[in-house]
Amino acid sequence: MKYWNKTLTDMEEYISGEQPAGGFIKLNTTENPFPPSKSALDAIAKRTSEALRVYPDAKSLELRKIFAEANGLSVENVFAGNGSDEIFTLIFRGFIEKNGLAAFPYPSYSLYYTLAQGNGIKYDRVQLEDDFSYNMDKFLEKKYSLVIISNPNNPTGTYCPVEKIARFCEAFDGLLVVDEAYIDFYGGSSIELVNKYSNIIITRTMSKSYSLAGLRVGFAGADAEIIRGLMKIKDSYNVDTLAQAGAAAALLDTKTFNSNTEYGIRSNKEYLEERLTGMDFFIVPSRANFIFVKHNSVAAESIYLKLKEKKILVRHFKGERQSEYIRITIGSMGDIKALCKELEAIISE
Ligand code: PMP
């Protein structure tokens, strides 16, 4: 394309999960099957009024205060973004020099690679261990200026404990971003490290555990100077009025949060794992709202395609190691039972 620059021409496109028009059971994009907090919806409805005539609070102050308080931080240690994806974009724009080298795990959230390419940043894909666990020492083998890990990791669900991340922060010269998009389902956040180390950014999102993927709200917790940098480089009104109001109310509604995560997703996941084990699936131990699984005899891609014919979507990624697996998002009990019924038929064919 004549008007594209070289970086845009050369970069690979980020491929989002399929979002078909309707009629599908969607277990492909790690969304939460339970509805968002009623008080969040009420707060959004209340602001859907004449209040939209004026700009939102450019600093999202109220929302940041609520997140800070819930996470043992001060407001100057918290940034609010248009989803956590915006925060990664800002990090690439403002926190690494063009000649810097970044590193991300593989397999992991491919947006990291896309953003590095889109910003002309060179990067290494650091292989996870054979069982998909993290060996953080591998990220110390070269002089990286930026490391992003997903914890728990998407698509494997594997988790790196806080002590290992703390040790890494001490040994590491660059900036570490810990993407905690899925941390709420089983806990174990590293956010306390923000008060201890100035080279760590923790990102969080309202998209998964709060069932608000459509609202586009994410957070970063970090040293005050990092937050000041993010504030300086962000779009002026990056979180809109409705998103600020809805996210604030959702954060305060701990009852809905607990029932959607602990009692909803966790118990449904246990049930699904039991059924899949009975069908001869191998399941990578996951601390997220999805599982990465492969069958002992039927190929992953064939399972994905056959399920799709039956109007059930799971995620199958191309690429080494991960193409042997499918990633299944934990859905409602009805979705899981429908999935298991089809899987049993596919396996027994
Ligand atoms: N991080 C990871 C690891 C994800 O899988 C996703 C969802 N695709 C995101 C971040 C995006 O989160 P958000 O909706 O807040 O932009």
CATH class of the largest domain: Alpha Beta
- Can you tell me the CATH superfamily of the largest domain? Type I PLP-dependent aspartate aminotransferase-like (Major domain)
Low-confidence stretches: none
| Secondary-structure content class | alpha/beta
| Number of separate strands | 12
CATH architecture of the largest domain: 3-Layer(aba) Sandwich
Strands of the largest sheet, in order across it?
2-8-7-6-5-3-4
Count of spatially separate domains: 2
Let me know the average pLDDT.
Answer: 96
Helicity level, as a percent range? Answer: 25-40%
Number of helices: 11
Cα distance spanning the termini: 47 Å
Order of helices and strands: HEHHEHEHEEHEEEHHHEEHEEH
Instruction: Give the amount of beta strand, in percent.
Output: 15-25%
What is the fold-level CATH name, i.e. the topology of the largest domain?
A: Aspartate Aminotransferase, domain 2
Bound molecules: 4'-deoxy-4'-aminopyridoxal-5'-phosphate
Rg result:
20 Å
- Principal-axes shape call: globular
